[in-house]
Amino acid sequence: MEAGFSEMRNELQSREAVWRRIQLECQQLHTELLKIREYKDMQEIQIKHQSSCVQLTEQLENKNAELLPLTQSQEHQQEELNEIRNYLYREEQSHRSEQERMKTEISDLTEELHQKEITIATIMEKASLLERQLKTELEIKDKLLAKQQLLDFQYKVIKSENTHLKEMV
């Protein structure tokens, strides 16, 4: 009987260890989720920064337009203007590729976040199911234990009666 209790105790401890591992994994996934959200917030700040860069670029173009009539040499003006346009074009291209890269990263991170949320939900469902199974098993084992104790008691009573009857005979 003690072996049965020991076995039940070991099984309960094993299940409790599984439950703790599940809780630890949930905590780790939650930490990763927070990191991903922080990274996403950083990406949004960078996008706002890019918007201000575009405004600065537009301001630069406006200043260049004001300066053109003031310069003495038209050839020199044209060279400067071409250089500025080329620079702006390269910056614009660089900006566009950076924005596309960031959009892709954000999309990937969002998908990863979604997958982790699904994983967390699945783990929580499994943990809930395991908890219910464990409770059910505990109830069954409690009933079996009570039944075993009752049978032990009945056995002792019958044994006592047998001893008494043997003494009488």
Task: Walk me through what this model shows.
The chain is mainly alpha-helical. The protein has helices at residues 2-67, 74-168. It has one domain. It contains 2 helices and no strands.
Helix and strand string, N-terminal first? HH
SS-based class: mainly alpha
Rough outline: rod-shaped
Q: How many structurally independent domains?
A: 1
Assess the beta-strand content as a share of residues.
under 5%
Helix count equals 2
Rg, rounded, reads 38 Å
* Helical content (DSSP H or I, runs of 4+): over 70%
Protein name: DEUP1 protein
Keywords: Coiled coil, Cytoplasm
GO biological process, one term: centriole replication
Coiled coil: 92-126
Features:
mainly alpha, rod-shaped, DEUP1 protein, cytoplasm, single chain, 2 helices, about 170 residues
